[in-house]
Amino acid sequence: MVITSPISFHKFKTQASFYLKEKIKTVRLVLTDVTPTELLTEEATNGNPWPPDTQTMGVISRAAFEVDDYWRIAEILHQRLLKFDRKNWRASYNALVLLEHLITHGPKRFAEEFKSDEDVIREILRNNFQYIDEKGFNWGLRVRKLSERILELLESDQAQLNEERSRARKLTREIKGFGSFGQRCSTTNNGSCLGDYSSSTTYGICNSDQLEYKSCLEEKEVNKKAKVITEKQKQKQNSKHFWVNADQEDGYSIEENHPFCENELETTTSLLISTTDS
């Protein structure tokens, strides 16, 4: 007679639940007008014990230059921020993490769009949320610091915001130079999840082995979907309905008719070509 340990049974339940959720997402993609980017944003800002990683946020910020996906992403973030409370705080926190990235890496329209949420974010600050996990990470302090950071960005003038965007993008490029910064999760032989917690000082880490095992499954799926969306973005770059985020592409400047850019008549041109012509 085989005796199943509680941990093994928990992993079985986790895998079954994960499989069911993936099937539901597949049905949504087929039967509704939901987009892959919309699903990815929902997953990145749900109640996961880990925040969205750098790769996922990069994919979402590039997808935000697609007009339809921009509005879908913004709506999800508006709803997440509105639903902050002491018991279900992780979704709102993950939304704050993604929002900071979008303000500094996505369309400039995001800063204007979320000025209407300043009171909501101030309410999160006034809530004085307190939570220190079993490993000693102060999540309450992190939520407050991130809220203050976003309010500073939203209240900045255009020159200050441009400076912050340039600084953040430079930092992102430097971080990418160190390798797989966003990879926090790898599976051991016994199925537990080990993490590269290089970003833990910024966003924090998981708590228990069971949570980390579930997180590992879900994060792998998120990363897989991020790669799929990235490939689709590359295929769509030549489409008239897709606007390349040239600020994030080395060697390019924005000169295109983009609905979220300040200049109305622009076309994407290579700085290398401009230099050659001059």
Question: Can you describe this structure?
Answer:
- With 278 residues, the protein is mainly α.
- It has two domains: 6-240, Alpha Horseshoe (Serine Threonine Protein Phosphatase 5, Tetratricopeptide repeat), CATH 1.25.40; 243-278, no CATH class.
- Helices cover 60% and strands 3% of the residues.
- The protein contains twelve helices and four strands, in the order αααααααααββααββα.
- The protein is globular, with a radius of gyration of 20 Å.
- Residues 180-215, 240-258 and 262-276 have low confidence and may be disordered.
- It comes from Dipteronia sinensis.
- It holds the Pfam family ENTH.
Lay out the secondary structure.
Layout (H helix, E strand, L loop, with lengths): L5 H26 L4 H9 L9 H10 L3 H16 L7 H16 L3 H5 L4 H9 L12 H17 L2 H19 L9 E2 L5 E2 L5 H4 L5 H28 L15 E2 L15 E2 H7 L1
Antiparallel strand pairs: 1-2, 3-4
Helix pairs in contact: 1-11, 2-3, 2-4, 2-11, 3-5, 3-11, 4-5, 5-8, 5-9, 7-8
How are helices and strands ordered from N to C? HHHHHHHHHEEHHEEH
CATH topology of the largest domain: Serine Threonine Protein Phosphatase 5, Tetratricopeptide repeat
Structural class: mainly alpha
Poorly predicted residue ranges: 180-215, 240-258, 262-276
- What's the end-to-end separation, in Å? 80 Å
Please describe the structure with a list of short key phrases separated by commas or semicolons.
two-stranded antiparallel ribbon; mainly alpha; two-stranded antiparallel sheet; Serine Threonine Protein Phosphatase 5, Tetratricopeptide repeat; disordered C terminus
